Prior knowledge:
Blueprint: H1 10-14, E1 23-28, E2 31-35, E3 41-48, E4 55-63, H2 68-83, H3 88-104, H4 107-118, H5 124-137
Antiparallel strand pairs: 1-2, 2-3, 3-4
Amino acid sequence: MPAQTLRLSDRQLKGVKPASKDYVLTDGDGLQLRVRSNGSLLWNFNYREPVTKNRINMGLGTYPELSLANARKMAVEARELLAQGIDPKVQRDTLSEAKRAETEHTFENVATAWFELKKDSVTPAYAEDIWRSLTLHLFPDLKTT
């Protein structure tokens, strides 16, 4: 029979002090709070990767910015992914990359980059005219330079 882990409490977390070496407080079900010697408190989800069965620590955030309750919710969501054979760290990185790719190459961003590249190779009046047209007709939220 495995040893039973006592759950962490908010009161216990508020009283955590750094030591000369990093140490870990365990909440159970893979949720851990790493207490760094510099005083930072980091939530980790420790799990076995579904395919290779290697141990992996997935960072969830810092305490108190990420509360105990929210860290537990994130750990539950990660365990649900593991039950489906999905690596939660890979899933998080894939979603993050998809979100970045979705917003990275918008027409506004490409036009802004193009303008920054070309503005020195044309006359200043022509560059201002191009930018004014872009901001007036396509990007009304941008300020003119």
